[in-house]
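Supplementary Note 3. Input sequence used for the single-chain structure prediction.
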Amino acid sequence: MKELVEIIAKALVDHPDQVTVTETQKESTLVVELHVAPEDMGKVIGKQGRIAKAIRTVVKAASVGDDDKVVVEII
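The predicted structure, written as discrete structure tokens, is reproduced below.
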């Protein structure tokens, strides 16, 4: 999931070198944290959170076969 979120985020932002993605396992949940440059935050979130919701939807669809729940946090 880390690679998927990283590829999507780097395609959206102006500063792809400042995109970092970390994965943390908490019980039966995989938490994927996305860090971007402050000036790119709006591009990753989108108007009314549409881009962020789309990223979460793609990650959820990619994790259908896994037993763990995947949560994407934009920090």
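The domain at 2-74 is CATH 3.30.300.20 (GMP Synthetase; Chain A, domain 3). The radius of gyration is 12 Å.
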